[in-house]
Amino acid sequence: MACTKTIIIEKISEQNDFTPSEAKDKIETLLEIMKSTLASGEDIMISGFGKFQVKEKSQRKGRNPSTGENMVLEKRRVVVFKCAGGLRDKINGNKV
User: Fold this and answer.
1) Do residues 29 and 40 lie in contact, with contact meaning Cβ atoms separated by under 8 Å?
2) Which CA distances in Å does 72 have to 11, 58, 60, 64?
3) Which of 55, 52, 53 is nearest to 76 (CA)?
4) Which residues contact 62 (CB under 8 A, 6 or more apart)?
5) What is the pLDDT of residues 74-95, one digit of tens each?
6) Which DSSP category does 66 fall into?
7) At a CB cut-off of 8 Å and minimum separation 6, what does 19 contact?
8) Measured between alpha carbons, how far is 77 from 90 in angstroms, rounded to an integer?
9) Structure pTM?
10) Which domains does the chain have, with CATH numbers?
């Protein structure tokens, strides 16, 4: 099961003596800062967690999987995440 925004809000509320409403406001503020930072093309680096980065994808040839028709996929920007070594170790069960 995925950890949803609602679950994160509940955990922040419980662990920090915030009301659920206060925790929700803090999470919403954080997410808005992250969205606007990434939308402006800046990276977000969170020590011990990882780096969110905006990458440019070039125009390329593609194919519609439903019809098999060839098409051109326009250039676009995507967000990629590279986890920090500490997070990678924790995920893999290594001592941090």
Assistant:
1) no
2) 44, 11, 6, 10
3) 55
4) 70, 71, 72, 73
5) 999 999 999 999 999 999 987 6
6) T
7) 13
8) 30
9) 0.78
10) 1-40 (no CATH), 42-96 (4.10.520.10)
